[in-house]
What does this fold into?
Amino acid sequence: MKRGDSKGRWGFWVGVVALVAFVMTGPVMAEDLTVDNYETYPVTESISFYNEFIGVTNSGTLNQQAATNNVNNLYLGYGTASFGTYYLDGGSLLASNEYIGYGSNSYGSLTQSGGTNTVTNTFTIGANNTSYGQYYLKGGTLSAGTITVNAVGSFVQEEGILSGTLVNWGNFVYKGGTFNGRLVL
It folds into this structure.
């Protein structure tokens, strides 16, 4: 670039603006992930989706043993009479919203035996009167502002660390581990 030539400077500043925009907004999320028709989806590398629908017309399973799953909305048992199952054995699940048991007459289950699950906004187990949801905390760390266990929901803590407020209108069973937070009955 010659002295006084502004073409190189513009290219530099466009790159800086693009980098700042990425840092401020985070990684770009793919639209949606649907796991259904008796499929099992293994998380073997980091993924990022806006919506994850696990169990829409029948059943679906997501297995995570490592890496990071970054999702805006996680639905387990999304469709009517569907089954959605999530096994978190390692890695990190980072979600804005988690709905375990969402659709009418659906069943959602999340079993955490390791890793971390961090929920920044809504965390609902048994989202409506006819959707059944279960969360089993057998290890690892679960952090959420408020976890709502509705009448058709169940939360069982056997081990691991739970941080946050648990609002229990359903079934909460404490068998062990560390409960850092508040229980509202």
The first helix runs from residue 7 to 25. The mean pLDDT is 89. Residues 68 and 165 are 24 Å apart (CA to CA). The first strand starts at residue 30 and ends at 35.
